[in-house]
Design a protein that fits this description.
The protein is an alpha/beta fold and 491 residues long. Helices cover 37% and strands 15% of the residues. The protein has 16 helices and twelve strands. Helix 8 runs antiparallel to helix 9 and helix 11 runs antiparallel to helix 12. It is globular and about 75 Å long.
Length: 491
C-alpha cells in the first residue's frame, strides 16, 4: 500500500534525501532511525524515556544480549541530526516519572532524540571492522498522524463515503448523530460559505474527540490533525469535513463541495505528504505500541476498531530487506515490533493471553500488507512497571493480585482512590478463548463474565542502591524489545 501513496516525483525526492543522508553518515558512526508510534494512551513517551534511562543508567536488561555480556561500555545522549525537528524532552519526562511520580504528557507532535552506544563487537571480525559505536535516532510521532497516510490514495469522495460508513457503525452511531444531522442540512452544490465550513468542521471534530474518550477507546480517527492541530489550528487546511450526497461529476466552481474538496487536497499536499516523505520513509526500524487493555474494557466494538486502525497503520510502512546498493537510495523498515503495553496491569499468568490478543489483532494487517523481507514480532510489555505481584486469601481461595498506587480518582466497585495509598487489586483474567473478544455480537454474553478491573497506577517509587542512588526504572520485557529492535547492530 505504501508505494501507492507516492508519485514518481515523490520517489525521486525520497531517493535524493536518502542518498544525502547516507552520504553524510559515511563520515561518522553508523546510525539507525527507530520510529516509535502508537495511538493515544499507548505509552510512547514512557517507552522512549524508559529505554534511554535503562541504557544510560545500566538497567536490569537480562535478555538484551549486549548488556548481559558486558559489551556495552556506555550509552549517552548527543545532539540529534535534524535541527528542524523538536527534541524529545527526555530530562523533563524522567523528572516527572522518577521524582514527581506522575506520567509525562502524551505525544502531541513529532520529536527526536539521539542515543549513542559505545560497545565491543562479539566477534573478532566485528571488532576489526566495526567502529564500536552506534547512534540510535529515536523518532517519536503520534499514531493519529500515521492514520492520515491512507488519505493520500483516496479522493475526497472516497474519504467522505468511508467517513459516513464508519460513523454509521453501532459503536459510533450515537457519537456521530449530531455531526450527521448537521451534514444532512447542507447542500454540497450550494455556494461556498466559510461559516458553513466552520460549523461542519467543528461538528466533525467534536465527533472524533468523543470517539477518543477513554470509555469509548476508538482508534480509527482520521484526519489526525483534527485531534492534534498544533500551529494549523483554524487554518483552511483543517476547515473541511466529509459531505453526503456528493455530485458524481466535477463539482461546480464556487460550490461548497468544491471548497471542501480543495481543502482536503491541500491537507494531503501540505500536511500528510511532507510527514510521509520527511519522516516515515527515513525509518529503519519501527515499534507500534498498542493499548489493548483500554479497548478490551470498552468492548468488542472498540477492539474491532483497534484492529481496523492497526491494519491501516501497518499498511503505511515501507517494509523490506535492505541491501547495500538499494539502501543508498531507499530505506526499508526491516523489523517491526507490535507491543501490547501496560502488561503490569495484569498478573503475569495473563500476559500470554494479552500477547495472543494483540497477535490476532495484527494478523489481518500482516496478511494484507506486503511484509516480505521484514521481520514482525509481537510482545506484551510494560516499559515502566508500576505494580508488583502478590497473593491474597479470600476464604479458601488464594488469588493472584497486583499491588500498586492507583491514580487519584480511580475507582473500583464504588471505592475511590486517593493517589497515595498502595492497594492490592485482583485484576481478573483474560479469557482463554479469545474469539468472543472479537465478536461484536457477543456483548450480552460478555456481561456475565468477570470483568477486568483495569485502573491506572502511579509510576513506581524507585529503590535505592547501597550508595543511596536511585535504580533504573523497572519494566516488563523492555529488554526483549531492545534485543529485537537493535540487538543485531550490537552483535
Amino acid at each position: 500500500m505504501a508505494t501507492s501513496l507516492t508519485t514518481l516525483t515523490d520517489e525521486a525526492r525520497i531517493a535524493l534525501d536518502t542518498f544525502a543522508g547516507r552520504a553524510s553518515s559515511l563520515f561518522g558512526s553508523p546510525s539507525i532511525r527507530l520510529g516509535v508510534t502508537g495511538l493515544s494512551r499507548a505509552g510512547k513517551t514512557v517507552f522512549i524515556s524508559a529505554l534511554v534511562h535503562n541504557l544510560i543508567h545500566g538497567g536490569r536488561l537480562p535478555l538484551f544480549e549486549a548488556r548481559k555480556s558486558g559489551r556495552i561500555a556506555r550509552a549517552f545522549l548527543e545532539e540529534q541530526p535534524d535541527d528542524a525537528v523538536p527534541r524529545f524532552q527526555y530530562e523533563d519526562h524522567i523528572e516527572a516519572l522518577v521524582d514527581s511520580r506522575i506520567w509525562p504528557e502524551s505525544t502531541r507532535a513529532i520529536s527526536e532524540l539521539r542515543l549513542t552506544i559505545d560497545f565491543e563487537s562479539a566477534s573478532g571480525w566485528g571488532r576489526l571492522f566495526s567502529s564500536g559505536r552506534l547512534s540510535v535516532d529515536i523518532v517519536d510521532y503520534p499514531g493519529e498522524w500515521l492514520l492520515d497516510l491512507p488519505l493520500l490514495g483516496k479522493s475526497y469522495a472516497e474519504f467522505s463515503a468511508d467517513a459516513f460508513e464508519l460513523a454509521g457503525l453501532p459503536v459510533r452511531a450515537g457519537l456521530s448523530a449530531e455531526w450527521r444531522k448537521v451534514a444532512e442540512t447542507v447542500d454540497p452544490n450550494a455556494d461556498a460559505d466559510e461559516m458553513t465550513a466552520r460549523r461542519l468542521a467543528e461538528s466533525f471534530t467534536a465527533y472524533l474527540l468523543a470517539c477518543k474518550l477513554d470509555e469509548r477507546a476508538l482508534s480509527t480517527l482520521p484526519p489526525g490533525r483534527f485531534l492534534m492541530p498544533g500551529d494549523l489550528d483554524g487554518s483552511p487546511a483543517l476547515t473541511f469535513a466529509p459531505l453526503p450526497r456528493l455530485s458524481p461529476n466535477r463539482p461546480r466552481q464556487g460550490s461548497l463541495q468544491a471548497m471542501m474538496e480543495r481543502r482536503y487536497e491541500a491537507y494531503k499536499t501540505h500536511v500528510v505528504k511532507p510527514f510521509f516523505r520527511e519522516h516515515i520513509t527515513r525509518l529503519d526500524r519501527q515499534i507500534v505500541l498498542v493499548d489493548a487493555m483500554q479497548a478490551l474494557n470498552a468492548g468488542p466494538g472498540a477492539v474491532a476498531d483497534l484492529e481496523r486502525a492497526l491494519t491501516e497503520i501497518l499498511a503505511c510502512f515501507r517494509p523490506g530487506k535492505n541491501a547495500f546498493l538499494t539502501d543508498l537510495f531507499s530505506r526499508r523498515i526491516d523489523r517491526i515490533l507490535i507491543a501490547a503495553t501496560k502488561a503490569d496491569h495484569l498478573h503475569h499468568e495473563s500476559h500470554d493471553r494479552l500477547q495472543a490478543i494483540v497477535r490476532r489483532l495484527a494478523d489481518r494487517a500482516i496478511q494484507r500488507a506486503d511484509f516480505s523481507g521484514a521481520s514482525v514480532e509481537v510482545l506484551a510489555m510494560a516499559a515502566v512497571r508500576a505494580t508488583r505481584e502478590g497473593t491474597v486469601r479470600q476464604g479458601r481461595e488464594t488469588l493472584p493480585v497486583i499491588i500498586g498506587t492507583p491514580l487519584k480518582g480511580e475507582t473500583i466497585s464504588g471505592e475511590t482512590f486517593d493517589g497515595k495509598t498502595e492497594t492490592a487489586i485482583f485484576p481478573g483474567d483474560l479469557p482463554e478463548k479469545i474469539d468472543a473478544i472479537f465478536d461484536e455480537g457477543a456483548e450480552a454474553a460478555r456481561q456475565d463474565e468477570s470483568p477486568i478491573r483495569f485502573v491506572r497506577f502511579r509510576p513506581p517509587k524507585l529503590e535505592r542502591d547501597a550508595d543511596g542512588l536511585k535504580l533504573s526504572l523497572p519494566h516488563i520485557r523492555l529488554d526483549r524489545a531492545l534485543q529485537f529492535l537493535i540487538g543485531d547492530h550490537l552483535a
